[in-house]
Write a structure and sequence with these properties.
Elements lengths: L4 H7 L2 H47 L18 H20 L6 H26 L3 H30 L9 H73 L27
């Protein structure tokens, strides 16, 4: 008996052919999503490393945070750049709007809180964008086996019909071979599509979780830097007043500020 793909296809019923065509379309969609996500995550990784490398010298030095405004525009594919850039821009705008209230601790805290909320909102939008295509992969991975099973059922029906047809051998192997082959093909294609789809779905979900951790760690470091920037004028003002009314001499000392350090080995996000 001829078991070539062309021969098996010619022996399959219309329902089984329809099932296989649907599964092929599902596999093409899954491949498309996978390739697109690979490219997107690769660009995000490269540009995030570049952005962090450019950002660290600015946030590590006292008074240079303003220079980071607009830096994120050079790294459009980086979710880290968009999230952190939005927070820095909001912080600088808030500080500039304080004016004479720059030494008010409560006002500075409001500015930092506003920057934190801005980064949180942008982070959620960026993560939603990174989850693009994941519902489709999840749907394909969960439904492909059932689509294949649908074809399997009709293949078994075809096999039983062959067993009862005297013209096809009346129960011999030849009478059921076509139906069994039809059923197994549908099952195999459905399982193959589902297995590959669920692999890549879980892979990308893990990558998105890594990006989420990277965003949280970087945002925390930048917020710490903002607080150090905010404490500068707040620390100097009371010390200057104390020196003016007391007996001490010399310029007022400022609170020590440690440099910001990257949460990533090598100066850039390495998880994704």
């Amino acid at each position: 008996m001829n078991f070539s793909i062309a021969h098996l296809w010619s022996q399959m019923g219309m329902v089984a052919k329809g099932v296989v065509i649907v599964l092929i379309i599902m596999s093409i969609l899954a491949i498309g999503v996978t390739v697109e996500r690979f490219i997107t995550f690769r660009k995000a990784k490269i540009q995030s490393i570049g952005y962090i490398g450019s950002l660290l010298p600015l946030v590590s030095s006292q008074g240079r945070l303003r220079e980071a405004v607009g830096l994120d525009q050079r790294w459009q594919a980086s979710p880290v750049a968009k999230v952190i850039g939005s927070g820095i821009n909001e912080f600088v705008r808030g500080v500039e709007s304080l004016g004479a209230k720059a030494s008010d601790a409560s006002e500075f805290e409001l500015v930092v809180d506003g920057s934190s909320r801005t980064m949180e909102r942008v982070k959620e939008r960026q993560l939603a964008g990174m989850r693009k295509g994941m519902p489709l992969l999840a749907t394909i991975s969960s439904s492909a086996p059932f689509v294949g099973l649908f074809g399997t059922v009709f293949g078994i029906i075809t096999a039983f019909q062959g067993m009862g047809d005297p013209e096809k051998g009346g129960g011999g192997i030849a009478s059921v071979a076509a139906g069994i082959a039809e059923a197994l093909i549908a099952t195999a294609v459905g399982l193959g599509v589902a297995i590959v789809s669920v692999w890549f779905y879980n892979y990308f979900i893990a990558k998105i979780d890594d990006v989420t951790i990277d965003l949280d760690e970087t945002a925390g470091e930048v917020l710490d830097s903002m607080m150090r920037e905010a404490r500068g004028p707040m620390a100097v003002a009371p010390m200057a007043a104390a020196h003016g009314h007391g007996h001490g001499h010399g310029p007022p000392s400022q609170m020590p500020r440690g440099p910001i350090t990257s949460p990533y080995p090598g100066g850039g996000p390495q998880r994704y």
